[in-house]
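Sample entry (266 residues):
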Amino acid sequence: MTGGVSPTLAQTRSEGRAALIGYLPAGFPSVDVSIDLVRAMVKGGVDVVEVGLPYSDPVMDGPTIQAAADMALAAGTRIDDVFRVVEASAEHVPTLVMTYWNPVERYGVERFASALGAAGGAGLITPDLVPDEAQEWIAVADAHRLDKVFLVAPSSTRARLEMTTAHCRGFVYATAVMGVTGAREQTSSVAPQLVARTREVTDLPIGVGLGVSNGRQAAVVAQYADAVIVGSALVRAAFDAPEPASAVAAVTDLTHDLARGVHGEL
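Predicted structure, serialized as tokens:
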């Protein structure tokens, strides 16, 4: 699928619900199995997929995603493999790559954007790239009509919110907690306030990530966000399974639970 995530988020909004965005790293635990896991998320009911690009220094990721990235790198996963996973996912739902900036820069920004577009990818989420240092990416993304998803945080000033959201296309990624990623027992109490502050400066959809681990938590976040983003819990579900087939089943079941939450069925 091409054209970015905007049509999908407009559709979910018209249905009176939040979108569900699911994250899994490419190459975890192997490229072929990661394709099966991404397809399991689609079967379970995600509206948008985030494919993680494994990186050796994932400073914003918690231990679960770090371990998955390490496994993917140890298995020999390369950037071209990421595009394979994107292509398999983008057949079904809009698919973004979430990546630190260094691998994109080393691969070549224009080359990366071209390959991502050829794979049907919708755009990039860039957690460590701020818009005021992203001139090259912004220009290339605009040329290739790729979504640019930057992050806002509880610490963001109004001026920073205005500047960041002005450069986003697709949606704005609101990090619901300070610190690294990871599933939590409770969702962040500051997230609704961050979403409200961000809504004051943009009409773009706002997705909330970091911490959601089950359908009931997803239902809570869906009451105030346009999209619920889940990563660590899905990775953990795959990690805890003894073999690939049960990992696929576990990811399908968890995604279905999360989807019930955003659909207001819990």
